Amino acid sequence: SIDLAVCVSIASGYHDISISEKIGFVAEVGLGGEIRAVNRVENRISEAAKLGFNTMYIAKNNLKSISISPKGMKIIPVSKLEELFQILFN
Questions:
Q1: Which of 36, 39, 40, 43 has the greatest number of beta carbons closer than 10 A?
Q2: Is this structure's pTM higher than 0.85?
Q3: What element of type H or E holds 46?
Q4: Which residues contact 14 (CB under 8 A, 6 or more apart)?
């Protein structure tokens, strides 16, 4: 598995499109492009909110384990890397 933020960083550089520094990514990517859930997702989201992130992309499978939504933060579940790239780069 590869960290989702690393994949987005590589794609961002390739497309020469910058991603807002207020957007975070909490997931891993499998070799088939599937976005995989990670442990302690709520802790990661809480810490990101404290650091000023306002949007978090997470694995769709992590959505059911979240009972928090920090004020002002948008949490967006995705299941495939292709789906995320369509959102970010089109």
A1: 36
A2: yes
A3: helix 41-50
A4: none
